[in-house]
Structures are given as C-alpha cells and as structure tokens.
Amino acid sequence: MNFFISDALAEAPAATEQASAITGLLPLVIFGAVLYFLMIRPQVKRQKEHKKMVEALAKGDEIVTTGGMAGKITDLGENFLLLEVSDGTAVKIRRQAVDSVLPKGSLKEL
C-alpha cells in the first residue's frame, strides 16, 4: 500500500522567509516614522513654544485667553494671573489658559 501514498519528507526552510519577515515590518516602520514627523513632532514643538510664551508673560501685557477673553495683565503669580478685562473688572485665570499675546495698544482699538 505504500506505493499509492508518497512519503512526506521535510525540506529545509527557504532563505526568503527571513527576508519576507523584514519586508513585512518595513511598512510598520515607515508608518511609525510618518506618524512621528506629521503628528507627534509638531505637537511637541507647539507645546514648547506655548510654555516659553507663558513663562515670558509680564505685567502690562495684553493677552487673549483660550476662552476668547481679552485683557491686560495686572498681577502675576506662579500659576495664576489677574486679567483686567475692563475698567475696574479683573478676572483671575490660570497662566496655561493664555492663548496669545497681543501687540501693545491692541485693546484700545477694540
């Protein structure tokens, strides 16, 4: 009966399997690099610029908060600042809530 069934013999693994494993990882590596350069790196750069801007705030600067409130800084603390939004009206906000610093005299135009 052995003549109807051929013997299954083990063959040596092909050398191309190792190369195909490396080429299988190549798209993942490329995807990781694209993700880093298009998403992660610009976000880290924006965070550093925002931190530098917040540290450079001074009394008398005119700013806009993330909520859209504009005013002049009257007092600075370590984590908070006092923002004068109109004559006699001041609001205490976190320093991290500052979105941008306006040029001097911008609030007078409003």
Question: What is the CATH first-level class name of the largest domain?
Answer: Mainly Beta
Percent of residues in beta strands? 25-35%
CATH architecture term of the largest domain: Roll
N→C terminal distance: 100 Å
Q: How many domains, in number, for the residues?
A: 2
- Helix residue percentage: 40-55%
Largest sheet: 5 strands, antiparallel
Average pLDDT over all residues: 87
Question: Within the CATH hierarchy, at the fold level, what is the topology of the largest domain?
Answer: SH3 type barrels
Helix-strand sequence: HEEEEEH
Tertiary shape:
rod-shaped
User: How many helices?
Assistant: 2
Tally of strands: 5
Strand order of the largest sheet: 4-3-2-1-5
Q: What would you say this structure looks like, in words?
A:
- This is Sec translocon accessory complex subunit YajC.
- The chain is an alpha+beta fold.
- The chain folds into 2 domains: 42 residues; 52 residues, Roll (SH3 type barrels), CATH 2.30.30.
- It has 2 helices and 5 strands, in the order αβββββα.
- It starts with 15 loop residues before the first helix and ends with a helix.
What key phrases describe this protein's structure?
rod-shaped; SH3 type barrels; 2 domains; alpha+beta; 40% helix; five-stranded antiparallel beta sheet; single chain
Characterize this entry briefly.
This protein has 110 residues and is of the alpha+beta class. It has two helices and five strands, in the order αβββββα.
